[in-house]
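ok trying this again, last paste got cut off
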Amino acid sequence: MNPSIEQLQRLEPIRGLSPRRLEELAALSNCRTFPLGSDPLASMQRGEQFVYLLAGELRLSLPDGSKQVLVGGCDAAHWPIGYKSAPPLAGKAITEVLMLGLDFDLLDIMMTWDELAAVADTSVQSSEAPPWSMMSGAFSATALTSTAFSRLPPAHIHELFQRFQRIPVRSGDCVVREGDPGDFYYLIESGRCVISKQVGGVRMDVAELKPGNAFGEEALVSDSARGATVTMKTDGALLRLAKPDFIELLQAPLLRPIQRAAADARVAAGRARWLDVRYPAEFVEDGLPGALNVPLNEIRAAFPLIDRSLEYIVYCQSGRRSSAAAFLLAQNGIDAQWLQGGLGRGDSA
């Protein structure tokens, strides 16, 4: 079962999280009941979690040979087990106990973004500024832990809050038009939009985006014209970041180039796999052995099918398409580097 908001509000050091964050945390967490005589600590991932005793009595065996009885609901139980003292070697349930484990990385990301959001709200006085402390859909816990945001330096997070612009949009608004120059990166705070492309003289929808998804980055990374049109399907709001700010705060820390010799070594050692983002006709001509072929214009649709346990080295002819694809992959939590300079034959991208 999920913990209640009231239970989370009594726990340290997380009780300072915003109400919205606590709601998200409750939905993402589960309590476990352990019977009398069991050792709950043996089956909980203490190195990766904060572990709390919510109810019942638990006897802890400490490294110095002493014993300590922890009672759910007491002041000491409001802190993670082993947080303020040496981690116990084992535990024994004196009664049936209710335990809660909270992922450490998730909490760290939540607390960092919450604290920086509060600072941003107090430092920006404009009535048009986004209410960062409310943590809209653009920065949900899922988005923060499964996308590029989880790997950003805290200083960059603070700057993002300062430089994002909030843009209200209506259903039917064309936000980005195919063929136009790239100028902004967009993050969906609320609402949904459709990506479409001109194919053989016919406009076709290729993807639908929801809160937390981003668009516009391909043209910015590859320094080329917009490759698709983005139209709002519903009313909503977008967060917009100008190209120079995007390059400084997102592209620079996330886009990881790799030279051919180093890439060959990683693939040969089984540590990475080639990902060819050219058209199939190009791939057939000179695709690298063992490479997966997913053209850049299909990369978004392929996200659910890509094995996230693998590292990918993305390549094209020159590096332009592969750098854009690698950023898209990294932004969506997939470990990707791009082959700097590409295959190096011809002048095509």
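PB: full thing came through this time. The longest strand covers residues 202-209.
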